[in-house]
Amino acid sequence: MNIKDFKSLKEIHQYFAVHNTCKLKNTATQPVYETTPPTSGIVFIGEAPGLSEDKLGKPFVGAAGKLLDELLQIIGFTREDVYVTNVVKYRPPNNRDPLDREKDACRVWVNAELLLIKPKVIVPLGRHSLQRFLPELNISTAHGEVHIHSSGTPILPMYHPAAALYNPNLKNTLQEDMVKLKEFLNRKPKKGTSKKKQSIINDILQL
User: Fold this and answer.
1) Strands (E), the chain
2) Residues of the chain with pLDDT > 90: what percent?
3) How far apart, in whole angstroms, are the C-alpha atoms of residue 48 and residue 91?
4) Of 36, 47, 61, 92, whose CB neighbour count within 10 A is largest?
């Protein structure tokens, strides 16, 4: 099936839950995903589901998810306003880092989500997600800044909320970066920067 043909997130997830080659599905309880599109145009992309997410089938429902909710409140958003996903849809064993082949296996799944949502900005959370879009950058130097992907899509990386659970000093950094995200969203678009529908489709497929 061509990913341009999907009409809803639910349809996307139902299809790829069956038609995917990610070996993590052999050890995970279930795929983890959201089915409600964001009202803000913001897409947060984490690294991989954890134990709580694996049990419930929803992204960011554990301690890192609670911190993400707190951070969203700072800029006047709730979870319903944004879309949250991961570069892999299944929990890796023992919460290890996802392997490149596992990320590659879920790549078209994530592309389908982005193509349907057409985000105003993508927020990679952590180094694995950042490498998915801007492999030449390091999260420690790239966070909190807007980087324009070769497709034209704005990318604003942040540390993963889980990192702040182990290093409390990063919580202030996350708060500051969230404010920068709000400032970016409040910018008025320049005239002549709108894209035709086909151009947007081509951009997403490059991600």
Assistant:
1) 42-46, 83-86, 121-124, 147-148, 154-155
2) 88
3) 6
4) 47
The count of domains in the chain is 1
What pLDDT is recorded for position 1? Answer: 79
Residue for token pair 């134990």: 51
Interatomic CA distance for residues 70 and 35, integer angstroms = 22
- pLDDT digit string (tens) for 149-202? 988 899 999 999 999 999 999 999 999 999 999 999 998 665 544 444 444 445
Cα separation, 159 vs 1, in Å, equals: 34
- CA 27 from centre of chain: 23
Task: Outline where DSSP puts E strands in 27-120.
Answer: 42-46, 83-86
- Token couple for 36: 């409600």
For residues 129 and 47, give the distance between their C-alpha atoms in angstroms, rounded to a whole number: 6
Average pLDDT over all residues of the chain: 92
User: Residue 155 phi/psi, 5° resolution?
Assistant: -125, 125
What CATH number does the domain containing 99 carry? 3.40.470.10
> Residue 71: which H helix or E strand, with range?
helix 63-74
